[in-house]
Amino acid sequence: MTGNRSDPIGVFDSGIGGLTVVRALMEELPSENIVYFGDTARVPYGVKSVETITRYATEITAFLLDKKVKALIVACNTMAAVAFQAIENISPVPVLGVVDAGTKKAVSETLNKRVGIIGTPTTIASNAYPNAISTYDPGIKVFSQSCPLFVPLVEEGWLDHQATRLTAEEYLGPIMTRDIDTLVLACTHYPLLKPLLREVLGNRIQLVDSAETISKQARELFEEKNLQNKQKKPPEYRFFITDAPERFREVGERFLGRTLSRVTVVKW
C-alpha cells in the first residue's frame, strides 16, 4: 500500500538528531509535507536494550501511520539498526532506514575496501553496518568505533569546541590507523560535526552522511511509485515530541537551520 501524493513523509528519531534528515529532505524534496516525531522524553536510545528500542519504535510507527503518512523514514541509526524489521512488519507504506542508505553509499564510495563506522554504543554493538555491508560486498573490511560523547557535545552546541576536537581525536585515532578511505557517520547528530571531523581526518577519507543519502533514496522511491507531491502550495512541516519543547526548539533550530514552528508535545 502507498499513500496519496499530498500525504506527508513520516520521519522519526529518538530525539533531535533526526532533524538533520528532515533538513536534507527539505532541500532534496522541497514540495513534500513532513511530519516529524522525536521521542525527547526517552532519549537516548543508544544505551537501551533491543527489546525496549523495538517497543518504542513500534509505538512511534503506529502514531505516524495514524497521521496518514505515505512513507516512513527511520532517521535514528539505533532504531534502524535493531528495530527496522519490526517497523517494516507493521507498516503498510514504504519504510526507508538510515542504515541501508549509509551502507549502500559506503560500498559505492570505498576504493580500498576499508570502511570505518562511528556511532552510538547500541548501533555499534548491533553490528548492523558490518552485517549490511557484507551482504553487498563481503570483501570490504569494516572497523567500528563507539563515540558516546558526540551526541551531548553536539546538543550543547560545541561543534567547534576544543573539548569536541580532543574527543574526536581520541575516538578517531584508532580507526585512522586502519587505513580506511571511507567513514560512515552512523548517527544523525554527527553531520553537524563534519567540518571538525574533516579537520581531524584530513581530506583523504570520504565522509558518508546518511541524511543526504536517504533523502536521495526518498526522491528515487517517490519517482518510481509516482508519489511526488504535485501541489503548488507551500509544504507543511509538523513536529511532535514527547518532552522539553523549549530545548527542542533551541537545539532543533540549530540542526534544521531555520525557525521551528508547529511543535506539539505528545503524552503517551
Summarize the structure.
With 268 residues, this protein is an alpha/beta fold. The protein has helices spanning 19-28, 50-65, 77-90, 98-109, 121-126, 128-136, 150-155, 162-176, 194-201, 210-224, 245-256; strands at residues 9-13, 34-38, 71-74, 95-97, 114-119, 141-146, 182-186, 206-209, 237-241, 263-265.
Q: Would you tell me the overall average pLDDT?
A: 94
CATH architecture of the largest domain: 3-Layer(aba) Sandwich
Order of helices and strands: EHEHEHEHEHHEHHEHEHEHE
**End-to-end span in angstroms?**
27 Å
For the record, the count of structural domains works out to 2
Number of strands: 10
Strand order across the largest sheet: 4-3-1-2-9-10
Q: State the helical fraction.
A: 40-55%
The radius of gyration is: 18 Å
CATH topology value of the largest domain: Rossmann fold
Strand content is 15-25%
The best one-word shape is globular
